[in-house]
């Protein structure tokens, strides 16, 4: 086990007669990589979260509930409503009128065994197309935070990986330089002492 002394903060920037230019370059590369990692992650995360939340707020304003009518018997039987768990639904064809008066048809979730003509509430966008129910403000915040966090981590990984790769290259170069210097000056120390 190697002995380690007390941790010295900011040791990479302290003056040291043995410190070479490569050590200083590595220190600044690490500092820049960490700064870019934090900055890219935070900015990308905040921008993405804001965009997602604004998009969901726009959906809450633009999307409207509309009453649609079943145009066919829903799959299942009326008895299956008592057998299936509460909230169980099936897909069935429905018809509704858009705000401009045009008639549309599509598939919506309904209770099993529902009769033709049964009213069902569906959500539509301004063009009259079926959409899902918009997210509530608290759901929108949660989704925005999740998507923003994922975007932030993804964006932060780019400068982090680039910094690690550059540091690895600098370290490899430094080791090669040490080998060259050892080969050059090692023979000058050549004499062994005998006791």
UniProtKB/TrEMBL annotation:
Q: Which InterPro entries match?
A: MT1774/Rv1733c-like
Can you tell which superkingdom this protein's organism belongs to? Bacteria
Name of this chain's protein: Proline rich protein membrane protein
């Amino acid at each position: 086990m190697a002995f380690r002394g007390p941790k010295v903060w900011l040791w990479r920037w302290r003056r040291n007669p043995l410190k070479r230019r490569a050590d200083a370059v590595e220190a600044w590369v690490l500092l820049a990589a960490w700064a870019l990692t934090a900055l890219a992650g935070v900015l990308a995360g905040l921008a993405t979260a804001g965009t997602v939340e604004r998009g969901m707020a726009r959906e809450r304003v633009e999307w409207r509930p509309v009453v649609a009518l079943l145009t066919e018997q829903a799959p299942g039987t009326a008895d299956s409503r008592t057998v299936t768990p509460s909230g169980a639904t099936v897909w069935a064809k429905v018809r509704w009128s858009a705000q401009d008066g045009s008639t549309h048809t599509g598939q919506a979730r309904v209770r099993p065994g529902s009769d033709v003509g049964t009213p069902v509430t569906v959500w539509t966008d301004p063009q009259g197309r079926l959409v899902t129910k918009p997210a509530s403000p608290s759901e929108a915040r949660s989704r925005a935070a999740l998507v923003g966090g994922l975007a932030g981590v993804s964006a932060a990984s780019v400068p982090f990986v680039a910094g690690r790769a550059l540091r690895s290259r600098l370290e490899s170069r430094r080791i090669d330089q040490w080998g060259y210097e050892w080969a050059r000056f090692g023979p000058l120390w050549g004499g062994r002492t005998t006791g």
